Amino acid sequence: MLIKRRDFLKTASLATASLWVPRFLQAHSRPGALAHNGRILVMVQLSGGNDGLNTVVPYQNDIYYKERPRLGILKKDALPLTDEAGLHPELQALKRLYDGGDLAVLHNVGYPNPDRSHFRSMDIWHSASPADEYWSTGWLGRYLDAQCSGGGREICPATVLEIDDTLSLALKGEQQKGLALQNPGQLHQTARSSYFTDYLAAQNNKQHEDSPVGYLYKTMAETLSSADYLFEKSRLKPSTGTYPDTGMGKHLKTVASLILGGSETSVYYLSLGSFDTHINQAGQQKRLFKELNDALAAFSAELKAQGRWNDVLVATFSEFGRRVAQNASGGTDHGTANQMFFMGGQLKQKGLLNALPTLTDLDEGDLKFNVDFRQVYATLLERWLGTDAGPILGKRFELLGFV
After folding, report:
1. Which domain holds residue 280?
2. 380, 386 in Cβ contact below 8 A?
3. What is the pLDDT of residues 350-401, one digit of tens each?
4. CA–CA distance, 145 with 149 (Å, rounded to integer)
């Protein structure tokens, strides 16, 4: 198969973002070398600022309908969770998880001095930095650094994958970085191309480890090992679930195949968007929620059928919510606090974890946060992934009780 030069260059660029791959070689030759607690975190980023008030609908709140006379979702259309609130009508799979005790919702999540810029707010969520500080590493990248410190990368117990073309800041550490890929087979084909392998063979005996060329050789060689490993794992027990033919459907099918194949990956990172619904929000959010809903329905059903649902925790977030009032264009503008969803078979707290957002005490028309998102990260790191969150997040945060 002919691999075009641009595909080779693209894979080479991915290689420079993946310094952790030798662990795969050790795991392949020494079973058990990558032992971890067996738990898997799937982070789903709702890019663009999802409107939380039309996601979990406060259908008993008159202010909600007063501020959204055309955009508010009617009680008869929402999927009831409690007497006070229901889900967007496209989120039937989440409703089923809720009814089965496999879903929790945390409201009013945000951070002090919120920034309404997509890029800055996403950087804050990715890096877990204070709003007035700029950090160049991400919280999952630092998690990877922490897991790899002190023992050499070959015994590092954690791996992090982003199912995408490019690597987000969230997965970039100081010493270690995750790997971005859309499809293990595609990565494997490109990494095994003659462009790639001929370059590695030519550089194999040259002595320039400390040079830029040596660095590129080293990381490309590691990416080749990674591609082989992931391709092998994806084929061991391929997903047999019926997934929708959408981006999120394909990505979650890839994740399921790697989980079922026994990949040692601890964290998968996915994105869906854009939820930046300034105009015609109803149709855009409905379309995106259907894509998310149908993919999660297939994913959760397959993992339950294969006995792996208890090993997985799915968490969703968005960089901010939307303003309480609708705008003149049938949409909503950038806001602040929002909710997060958690899905899995080992939730210790289920349902609505805290009070719905108050619509009578706003910050210049926006919801006020009362849960710092870094409390969520600390909880995921310590109580799910089993690592010390303090050094990763730069300080201690009060843990939550949902896991």
Report:
1. 39-184+241-393
2. no
3. 999 999 999 999 999 999 999 999 999 999 999 999 999 999 999 999 999 9
4. 6
| DSSP secondary structure letter of residue 133 | -
The answer as to whether 319 is a domain residue is yes
Stretch 319-323: mean pLDDT, rounded?
98
Alpha carbons 120 and 333: distance in angstroms, whole number: 16
* 202 in any annotated domain: no
Taking the model in full, what pTM does it have?
Answer: 0.85
> Which H or E run contains 339?
strand 338-344
How many domains, in total, are found in the chain? 1
> Residue 122 maps to which CATH number?
3.40.720.10
In a domain, 133, yes or no: yes
- Rounded mean pLDDT, 276-285: 98
Token pair recorded at residue 154: 């070959």
Residue 81 pLDDT > 50: yes
6: left (phi over 0), alpha (psi -120 to 50) or beta: alpha
Query: Mean pLDDT across the stretch 295-309?
Result: 98
Q: What average pLDDT score do residues 243-265 get?
A: 94
Question: Is residue 1 domain-resident?
Answer: no
- Provide the strand spans (E) within 146-248: 160-163, 179-181
**DSSP for 359-384, written as a single string:** SSS-BTTBPPP-EEHHHHHHHIIIII
